[in-house]
Amino acid sequence: MTSLHVAIVGAGPAGSSAATFLAQQGARVTLLERNRFPRDKTCGDGCTPRTLWMLERLGLGDLPTSPDSAPVDSVYALSPGGIILEESIPSRLFGGRASVIARQVLDERLVRRAVQAGAELREGVLVEGIERDAHGVLLRCRDGEPLRADLVLGCDGSPSVVRRALGAPDFPRHEGAFAVRAYYENVRLSHPRSFAFFWEQELLPAYGWIFPLPDGRANVGLGMRADQLDASAVKLPALLEKFCTLPRVAPELAGARRVGKVKGHHLPYGSFSQHTHFDRALLLGDAAGFVNPLTGEGIEFALESGAFAAEAVAEAVAAGDFSARGLGGYARRWETRFRTAFHLNRRLMWAFERPWLLDRVFRTANRSTTVRNELSDILAGEATRISWRFVAEVARGG
Question: Least C-beta-crowded within 10 Å: which of 140, 255, 271, 299?
Fold first, then answer.
């Protein structure tokens, strides 16, 4: 590994995770970021229990308990018919701890950890294209000298310059969503240690969230599948304004003030993740489409894809094979871990867009331990299957 040079495009969670693990193994790592830290990233800022587990692996286990983090240990959800579900995050899910950390804070801590591990960070570098040959990869950068490396990891989000240069197809409109979020201050939440989700009749098929942040702040947002957004002709910022005035949401924001602009971003669904390893190249995080179709969560998948990439690169080095076949261990890892959950959550979207069915699920969960436990796994992104008992109890639960 000490003779290997890896160029990583994008210093978000996927890029910084891969950079840390690769540098720890002795590889020379150049991390290219188009912006300068600290920088904002449009996101819900929610860190699941698995995300905290990955932060621990990366040597950042102190971050979720720092003043920059808001601890979360429960879920508060409202169905279209007004049925409330309140549930502690089960301890079986990595100890039942979660957190909300603004991406401006999280991403900077992650990239500084990568630098501490030995990676070189180059900020303000915009990669415009890549060229590959039998000897390596050439990255063309705006306003700078080209960079040559042995491998390139595309961690540059969606849309991804690296993905496009590798010839991977764009995500279809029905296999992605758009989300918007805004920050509020002077917030007094009724459930200050909960991920709060709102499936409001007036918003469907969109759903909204309110996540607590430190110092009386909150991340407020909503998301909708891209093709449904096209068909509805609504504007998400306007829909977010409506969300904040709904009877069950407005009390949560009473007296609060919005800080800054409403910002939006694209979420490519993991159910379309097919093209992730190439000759001398891998795609990670959002660039690969590693986003939970149901909840829009992507941080945990980005961090874990960084670990998988480092393991696969080590195998390729040992075999002396940097072809797509030699890097195939990456796809085997992420498919084993992510694929089933992505496809399950893509199918579950159908149920979460139907008010009568979602009401029935919530109603049944409030009196059935089986349904409540499985629903907790679904909302935490840990479910890979739905049991027949779950289906039967929901069918009887109306």
Answer: 255
List C-alpha distances in Å: 372 to 93, 361, 376, 389, 390: 14, 9, 6, 12, 9
The residues pairing with 195 across neighbouring beta strands, listed in sequence order, are 75
pTM of the model: 0.96
CB of 328 closer than 8 Å to CB of 40: no
- Rounded Cα distance between 387 and 391, Å, is 7
CA 235/CA 108 separation, integer angstroms = 31
- Which percentage of the chain shows pLDDT scores above 90? 95
Tokens matching residue 134: 């039998």
Taking the C-alpha atoms of residue 249 and residue 185, their distance in angstroms, rounded to an integer, is 15
CA distance linking residue 39 with residue 46, whole number of Å: 17
In which residue are the tokens 């947002």 written? 221
- Phi–psi pair at 261, nearest 5 degrees: -90, 160
Residue 109 or 143, more confident: 109
**267 close to 294: Cβ distance less than 8 angstroms:** no
CA distance 316 to 20: 18
Note the pLDDT of residue 398.
55
- Of 105, 177, 155, 157, give the one whose Cα is nearest residue 281: 155
pLDDT at 362: 95
Q: How far is CA 74 from CA 49, 87, 243, in A?
A: 11, 6, 22
Tell me if 72 sits within 8 A of 196, measured CB to CB: no
Please report where in the chains the tokens 């709060």 appear, as a residue. Answer: 196
pLDDT tens string 221-235: 999 999 999 999 899
* pLDDT single digits (tens) 159-199: 999 999 999 999 999 999 999 999 999 999 999 999 999 99
Angle between helices 355-365 and 388-396 (to 10 degrees): 100
d(CA 170, CA 393): 40
22/4 Cα distance (integer angstroms): 10
* Whole-number Å distance between alpha carbons of 240 and 245: 9
Tabulate helix, strand, coil % of the chain (nearest 5). Answer: 40, 25, 35
Q: Each residue of 243-290: pLDDT tens digit? A: 999 999 999 999 999 999 999 999 999 999 989 999 999 999 999 999
